[in-house]
């Protein structure tokens, strides 16, 4: 991780700040600071103010002996106003004691006895050196005492600042003035007189002191005003240059509130005498830096790329150049995005599409609200991929929210929609033209819409999206590794495939349902690219397990049909079309000849019975058939043989038993099925069992789920009225067992519900 710290040396300069710092250092040195100077470095947060200050300090220190003394003052580390003053003056005192004066020895006359005695000492170098040290010590002590006194003066300090800086006396009186100031700190002399003594002494320093105050705009409002008042009132000494870094708009607003003035900008301009704006980094440099670091984070190698990786690399370059140019405005933007990618992307790089992750993090640093909208949208997309439907209300609300976000960004609406639509499916302005009310989200989305997103582990993949937000796969999904393993096994071994699928059928999900449903959904999404060698065994899994209670349960999402069956039929149609003629017939014979899911197989038969015109008048175009004519006749004969050879228990235990009987009758002969029902329901217990499994399944907002015996369906296989009378007879027979009695009463109620329907 990059600590997002400003660089300390020009060796780490990537954006060309070092030459700017050199010129800035030269400008500071060349200033005549006899009356003090306040210099501002302006720039928004993240533009590199601190880096420029560090490089400027480095350049000033390289000047050598003639360079200034440097103080890096950190007011945010100081507790209160009193400590702020004393701390600053302590640092000024330390700096002042390191600088020799230009001249401290006063002139004396040769005409006096005192002069004739003292003058030889003035020419003595050792004596002069001693005097210089005394002078520096006096200034240091004077500054410390002044800071201590000023920290307790309150309004007096402000008054002194308003008085201004008095002119200096003769240079020969400087040392005496400094000493006098120190001696008089305890008396009642005005603070302006005490300040005047220090002013006279500081004018004699041979080198200036440069005080850097960084990140002024990060202080609390009260602290900002205190620092600026300090500089204006008691720290505007000669030979002291203040370099302040800040965002002028932020500080101006802060001053307006903190000092309760009308114009914080004007207040700031009275204090800062000259300003320099941090140069905006070249967008190209920012993008190249960003791309270089991406290569390190994700170990991107441009050599020997396969076609998929080559296209991904091309997309990455486009995203860096296009979106990076829009979102990477400062060095801090680059660092923040790179850190996000190190945290969010690097640990899961094998489970994501790197270009999509880069785009997402670019959006995140520039527009957190849009980032949140994207997260909500891909969660909804995952639900759609798993069979859910969106409502008009949801689509309208999501579209309105995105519209507001784009409007807030002040981007071109249609361009923004187009850009987001390049990453996420279902977002398009279509033919809306200038009418923004006509654009849509979730537009033309279906299961097949996700194939390429799943294949490439894109942000919109229902099996990978969560990696982009939480470093983990979505709960209850099938991992890429488990999915690949299943397809690999299905390509070579029928028995192992059935065992693996059985395990998925019995593995429940935290959200409900079983993993076999997730597997089927995953196969459907990528059905056009599944290894052809795996298709026969996948279809055999359907033929053997779709009647399992975990896959044949029903809910109102599918109007009473077993939940997994519609999806399985869609999948069968896609996969079966991809087989050559030999494999098609072989798969038909295995699936329909020995598949255990006779109820599911019947649903396929019934669909084709109508499509081929074998029963009814709904023959469809041959292009819509699942089976060709020859294949259909094989299925027909095979299933008729299985029906005729099935026991009563095998028939009634099939899901949707009545559908099986209709399939048998429509494929063969209704009279044959009626005779089978009559022969197998002579026994009262079998009769009750038959009617119990013949009940329908209805979900109603008023009644909830209920199970009627529907007269219009049962009349095809037995006389409904006679069956009801027989139920009453069983219920009134004193010899009927309690279990049979309860079942008879349940069926009488079901018959009444069926008559109502």
From TrEMBL:
<feature type="domain" description="KAP NTPase">
    <location>
        <begin position="17"/>
        <end position="342"/>
    </location>
</feature>
<dbReference type="InterPro" id="IPR052754">
    <property type="entry name" value="NTPase_KAP_P-loop"/>
</dbReference>
<dbReference type="Pfam" id="PF07693">
    <property type="entry name" value="KAP_NTPase"/>
</dbReference>
<dbReference type="InterPro" id="IPR011646">
    <property type="entry name" value="KAP_P-loop"/>
</dbReference>
<dbReference type="InterPro" id="IPR027417">
    <property type="entry name" value="P-loop_NTPase"/>
</dbReference>
<protein>
    <recommendedName>
        <fullName>KAP NTPase domain-containing protein</fullName>
    </recommendedName>
</protein>
